[in-house]
TrEMBL record:
Record protein name field: CMP-N-acetylneuraminate-beta-1,4-galactoside alpha-2,3-sialyltransferase
Chain residue ranges for the region called Disordered: 1-27
S-S bridge residues: C164-C318
Pathway the protein acts in: Protein modification; protein glycosylation
A Pfam entry, by short name: Glyco_transf_29
Native species: Xenopus laevis (African clawed frog)
Homology family: Belongs to the glycosyltransferase 29 family.
Signal peptide bounds: none
PANTHER family xref list: CMP-N-ACETYLNEURAMINATE-BETA-1,4-GALACTOSIDE ALPHA-2,3-SIALYLTRANSFERASE, SIALYLTRANSFERASE
Listed GO CC annotations: Golgi cisterna membrane; Golgi membrane
Top-level EC class as recorded in UniProt: transferase
Keywords associated with the record: Disulfide bond, Glycoprotein, Glycosyltransferase, Golgi apparatus, Membrane, Signal-anchor, Transferase, Transmembrane, Transmembrane helix
Superkingdom in the source lineage: Eukaryota
Role of this protein: Catalyzes the formation of the NeuAc-alpha-2,3-Gal-beta-1,4-GlcNAc-, NeuAc-alpha-2,3-Gal-beta-1,3-GlcNAc- and NeuAc-alpha-2,3-Gal-beta-1,3-GalNAc- sequences found in terminal carbohydrate groups of glycoproteins and glycolipids. The highest activity is toward Gal-beta-1,3-GlcNAc and the lowest toward Gal-beta-1,3-GalNAc.
Length: 379
């Protein structure tokens, strides 16, 4: 979670690589601060610099020694402390506060994307892809030298409160007419090649980030949205090599060990391309879902799906997190698997890489604790 500092903190932690800077949330009198890794909750009347209609008693959430610690408060109690916010008003620190209640170690700052200090991250330096960047230094350095951008956008980074939605590809999105609701979020994350054009009524028209790996990337150039950021999730060393080809507009080699055909071009300029922090893959797999560690190597059933990885990323970098299009109901074999095609649920086969049941348990836990809001109620 990016470090957020408040005025009541006596001793602040040092900013980490990719830190989001000043406190988001002063507009509603809610501040999040950090001290010695201890979490606390206070209530106090605070004058809001820019009052928000409907917000009376403001909350001060401080990550410091306090009469109440987040570990002693249930998710329901924490959610109640935010209940005075008006409908639709962004609640600063909401998802991370609830996340800390069920995963007390969820406090490590983790920027969305790799920047030129990536080699300082010990957690990812120790492991090969997908859980780290070991052996990829030169490739990543070459990519970052061309992209030169490691954040979202200036407008999004300056927000005092940021709401993010991860749009999954599930058939549960079909005919829900959630498009306008999805577009209300400041950050809209889409996965792999899930199309937008022609499905706007259900999935919205806005795309902030599209996260993918080579085999999942859109191959038809006309299907890419304008003004979105292209984000690589590197699951194997070939993925970083592929991104270097893309960034430098070099010819993609089909013999680089991909398991199916890959995009040979992405209609994005280097400054519109990012590398997802591999820490989210590692944390989702081992800290949250509980997949086999396998000495930090890719193995049977220990790779989290891109959806769970994207949610983990959002929990570290957004104040509120929602999802739509998640969840597969195997009791409905004739239901559509994806919102954009006619393949049925019965087509799902056992996955060698993923543990769908464990992921489902993890996501259900987040929904039950109100850490994430499931708009399509599919989880």
């Amino acid at each position: 979670m990016p470090s957020r500092t408040g005025s009541s903190t006596k001793k602040r932690s040092e900013a980490s690589p990719g830190d989001n800077g000043p406190t988001r949330g002063g507009h509603v009198g809610l501040q999040v601060c950090y001290e010695d890794g201890n979490f606390g909750v206070h209530e106090e009347l605070a004058a809001s610099p820019l009052p928000v209609p409907g917000v009376g008693l403001s909350l001060l959430l401080c990550l410091e020694a306090a009469p109440f610690t987040l570990g002693r408060l249930s998710p329901v109690e924490l959610a109640t402390r935010y209940s005075n916010f008006s409908e639709g008003v962004c609640k600063p620190g909401y998802s991370s506060a609830l996340m800390n209640a069920i995963y007390p170690k969820f406090s490590k700052p983790a920027p969305m994307f790799l920047d030129d200090s990536f080699r300082k991250w010990a957690k990812i330096r120790e492991y090969v892809p997908p859980f780290g960047i070991k052996g990829q230094d030169n490739l990543i350095k070459g990519i970052l030298a061309a992209t030169k951008e490691y954040r979202l956008t200036p407008a999004l980074d300056s927000l005092n409160c940021r709401r993010c939605i991860i749009v999954g590809n599930g058939g549960v999105l079909a005919n829900k007419t959630l498009g306008s609701k999805i577009d209300e979020y400041e950050v809209v994350v889409r996965l792999n090649s899930a199309p937008v054009k022609g499905f706007e009524k259900d999935v919205g028209s806005k795309t902030t980030l599209r996260i993918t790996y080579p085999e999942g990337a859109i191959q038809k150039l006309e299907q890419y949205e304008k003004d979105s950021i292209f984000v690589l999730a590197g699951f194997k060393w070939q993925d970083f090599k592929w991104l270097k080809y893309i960034v430098y507009k070099e010819k993609v080699s089909a013999s680089d060990g991909f398991w199916k055909s890959v995009a040979t071009r992405v209609p994005r300029e280097p400054h519109e391309i990012r590398i997802l922090n591999p820490y989210f893959i590692q944390e989702a797999a081992f800290s949250f879902i509980g997949l086999p560690f396998n000495n930090g190597l890719m193995g049977r059933g220990n790779i989290p799906t891109l959806g769970s990885v994207a949610i983990t990323m959002a929990l570290h970098n957004c104040d509120e997190v929602a999802v739509a299009g998640f969840g597969y109901d195997m009791a409905l074999p004739n239901a559509p698997l994806h919102y954009y095609e006619t393949i049925k649920m019965a087509a799902i086969k056992e996955s060698w890489t993923h543990n769908i049941q464990k992921e489902k348990d993890f996501l259900k836990k987040l929904v039950k604790a109100r850490v994430i809001n499931d708009l399509t109620n599919g989880i």
